[in-house]
Design a protein that fits this description.
- GO terms for molecular function: cyclin-dependent protein serine/threonine kinase regulator activity.
- Keywords: Cyclin.
- This is Cyclin-related protein.
- This protein is mostly helical.
- The chain has two domains: about 100 residues, Cyclin A, domain 1, CATH 1.10.472.10; about 100 residues, Cyclin A, domain 1 (Orthogonal Bundle), CATH 1.10.472.
- Helices cover about 65% and strands about 0% of the residues.
- The protein has ten helices and no strands.
- α8 crosses α10.
- The longest helix has 20 residues.
Length: about 220
Amino acid sequence: ILLIESAGKRMALASNTIARAMHIYHQFKRCIDTIDFEDGLVAASAIALSAKTNEETLDLQNIVIVFWDMLNKDQVSLPKLNSEEFQELTDSLTKVQYLICRALKFELNHLLAHQYVIPFLRNLHEIAEFQHKWDVFVNIVWKVVSTAYMSKKCLNYDACEIAVASIYITCQFCRIKTDVITNWPEALSATMKKEKLYAAIVEFLAVCGVISVPNEI
């Protein structure tokens, strides 16, 4: 997952493309948990598939170069681009992409929390009392949403629930009053009951490196 995050940033990919790659990675690892695959190859393939799904231009050669550099750290020279060895690397990447597609039944275009954040924030802006700058608050929400996909437990929640939990965490962090409407998280996501919201908060905060969590919500 850290490879996906680092490589995605180096290749200047959109945050939702990186998040989708993480989701694909988690799904695939869950499907083949008894089979040992090289993490770097799976991570690179997940990024390639995510970029295709999000219609973001990304060359396979570029993926190979970036991951080779990250995994070898200049200890082993990259094969020449027109060499047979380099072609084998790109072929391996293509084969694993197909394997992932087969394992996930070619269902890669799942909804992401990113698609819910903006409309949810618009609704929240009308009922909340903000003491922070709006753009600062929104930026923190985006970071929490993206971080949530680093945990394999993101598979326990749908995109809508991840968006709600991320916004709730940010509201608590920024001390924003949202009690104008009772139980607004469930109003945004009917499946986000208090127990599930609390579980999501604990899991996503753990990914952020926060150990202390609220006793109740």
